[in-house]
Amino acid sequence: MINNLISKKNFIITGGAGFIGSSIIRFLINETEHKVLNLDKLTYASNLESLKILNDNPRYEFVQGDICNQKLVSQLFDRFKPDIVMHLAAESHVDRSIEGPTDFIQTNVIGTLVMLECARKYWNNLDKKNFLFHHISTDEVYGSLNETDLFTEQSNYDPSSPYSASKASSDHLVRAWHRTYGLPIVITNCSNNYGPYQFPEKLIPLIILNALERKPLPVYGSGQNIRDWLFVEDHANALYSVVSKGKIGETYNIGGRNEKTNLEVVNIICEILDELIPPNLNKKKNNQKIYRLKSSKKSILSYKDLITFVKDRPGHDFRYAIDASKIKKELNWAPKHSFKTAIKKTIEWYLNNPNWCKSIEDKNYQRKRLGLMSKKK
Asked: Which residues are catalytic?
């Protein structure tokens, strides 16, 4: 257990059954003495299997509900009496936002508005005692970079997709509630996360699971789009540093200092899988229980043989890269994991957790491509 940077607090985490949300909850319960209430709607990408180990912990409570339900949210504030709200609940997949933007506006904008208003009412009733609203956002609000620049906390907003536009809108709302009403807030904008428990619509788990089933490994366009990769456990640690030591009203960019093209990432995954599960052996070298491969007669020498270049995403940003010097200088945070070590750890987790992988299949998610705009008839 780490040394607590803040005394025992009550945390409300929205979207806590999602990828990043479940990571910060596991961190808070396992590494601190805080209490956590997890409010999650349980949409397709939520998975309570990610928090199963906490079910009997008296410091953890789960409530299924929608952040757009103002009555419910207000009741939870009054009953649980949070000291800190970490707002992660959001629709988050760019391709889905292209296909159906309405859900993104409803959850990411209207839902954030509801959270802010309930927080403001609750905070006012506290006679404005210690309270913090932490809004977790994305570097995608800044748009696309050239080959050399970095996103800083002063970068102009220039969102490209319905997803990033909805997150930019929610960022602006949070800042407005601080400047207009004085609500104590902090905002963080992070780079691309990866790690255990990530829903396989995102690149890294999609490639891992498709490779194991001899399915094509889709790479958008030429694969030269660049992302800065952040291991989710490092992100959870950063978020805790922000609520513990961050300055009210400030924004902190959180990056992994791991810039790689999408094609590089896919090649690295294939190389590690070639070592752990040689494709023609169909089992791990140490014969441990692994994610069960579906039957396939496809013979390959390397998982790289499955790489398939597909039509690029509409409005696909070329490059994201974060300057995380502010959080390093002011809060003494830096990522602990290199991409090389954390990606192997991630792959091994998917290999060794077949039940979690199966829980995704049980939701009838087939890893199909989304976000290709239909042709006009």
From this structure: 139-140, 163
pLDDT in tens, the chain (377 residues): 343 456 899 999 999 999 999 999 999 999 999 999 999 999 988 999 999 999 999 999 999 999 999 999 999 999 999 999 999 999 987 888 999 999 999 999 999 999 999 999 999 998 778 899 999 999 999 999 887 899 999 999 999 999 999 999 999 999 999 999 999 999 999 999 999 999 888 899 999 999 988 999 999 999 999 999 999 999 999 999 999 999 999 999 999 989 999 999 999 999 999 999 988 755 555 554 444 445 455 678 899 999 999 988 787 888 989 999 999 999 999 999 999 999 999 999 999 998 888 777 666 555 565 545 544 33
| pTM of full prediction above 0.70 | yes
> CA–CA distance from 180 to each of 176, 184, 187, 188, 345 (Å)?
6, 11, 16, 20, 45
The amino acid at 168: A
As a whole number of angstroms, the distance between CA 191 and CA 227 comes to 8
- Spatial strand order in the sheet of 60-64: 60-64, 35-40, 10-14, 84-87, 132-138, 185-190, 251-254
Token look-up 């579906």 returns 294
Contacts of 96 (CB under 8 A, 6+ apart): 103, 104, 163, 201, 370, 371
